[in-house]
Amino acid sequence: MSKIQAALLERLPKLKLISQRSVYPHIDVEACTRLGVIVSSGQHAGNPSYATAELTWALILATARQLPQQMAALKGGKWQIGVGTTLRGKILGIFGYGRIGATVAGYGKAFGMQVVAWAREQSLAQAHADGYLTARSKAEFFETCDIVSLHMGLVPATRYIVKAEDLARMKPDAILVNTSRAPLIEPGALVVALRAGRPGYAAVDVFEDEPLRDPHFPLFEFEQIVATPHIGYVTREEYEIQFSDIFAQILAFESGNPINVVNPDVLPRTTYHSNSHRG
């Protein structure tokens, strides 16, 4: 995600609207309000990013069966370099039971996995209502799951919610998957955990600083990691949905009736201008 912070916003005096979709941890909303910039961001309630959920499952399969490693070896003239893991019968842990987490849980169920959720109380109640098990504690969750997949938005309460001690509780052959936000994990904790052998594998699609173009990035030193360049939402179908919502917000702003406004305090200072500039 491209960061839109105060330093950039202050260099854009004509900016009046930021139209986007979904969560917005990369936007300094307070600075936008101070500078009179409306932030419109539809949260598409009830509609998960199926593209992200599907990539999550692709990463789980790729890691469990060592697909990147096997492909690289085959192209290098080697044959069957390792032994993969069957998912059926394993425990899939969903950390954060929201729209995407619930979708991934369904994929796990279809593959014959035992799904266990850990989340805030309301989300745990929903997971239980959907027929899934819930962990008794965060510690039990990390200790027992064969795969832990992170699915939560990045807010102050969830920043660095996965601690080094959580990762240290994971099994030596467990997999950690993160297609949500990199800062859900304590800085450097995953590198330390992989070096210690708990968990044994990881699959990530998100990074602290993006775009990431450093071939010597610490995570890349591990053969047991599968990494992709934040492509969870990068499909033609997903882009069509996103652009449709984004353009609808722009048209609403142009008509003088902005929608999905996340900083409503800015409206009294901008509504008159958005109406008047149409002349």
Instruction: List the helices and strands in order.
Output: HEHEHHEHEHEHEHEHEEHH
Q: Helical region count?
A: 11
Distance between the termini: 35 Å
Biggest sheet record: 7 strands, parallel
- Outline, from the CA principal axes? globular
Range of strand content: 5-15%
Radius of gyration: 21 Å
If you average the pLDDT, what whole number results?
94
**Overall helicity:** 25-40%
- The unreliable regions are 272-279
Order of neighbouring strands in the sheet with most strands: 5-4-3-6-7-8-9
Number of strands: 9
Structural classification: alpha/beta
In words, what does this structure look like?
The chain has 279 residues and is of the alpha/beta class. It is built from eleven helices and nine strands. The strands form two sheets. It has a seven-stranded parallel beta sheet, sandwiched between helices. Strands 1-2 form a two-stranded parallel sheet. Strand 7, helix 9 and strand 8 form a beta-alpha-beta unit. Helix 3 packs across helix 5. The two termini are 35 Å apart. The C terminus is likely disordered.
Q: Could you outline the blueprint of secondary structure elements for this entry?
A:
Blueprint: H1 6-9, E1 17-21, H2 29-34, E2 38-42, H3 50-64, H4 67-75, E3 91-95, H5 99-110, E4 114-118, H6 121-129, E5 133-134, H7 138-144, E6 147-150, H8 164-168, E7 175-178, H9 189-196, E8 201-204, E9 225-227, H10 236-254, H11 267-276
Helix pairs in contact: 3-5
Name a few traits of the molecule:
alpha/beta; 37% helix; disordered C terminus; 11 helices; two-stranded parallel sheet; seven-stranded parallel sheet; 279 residues
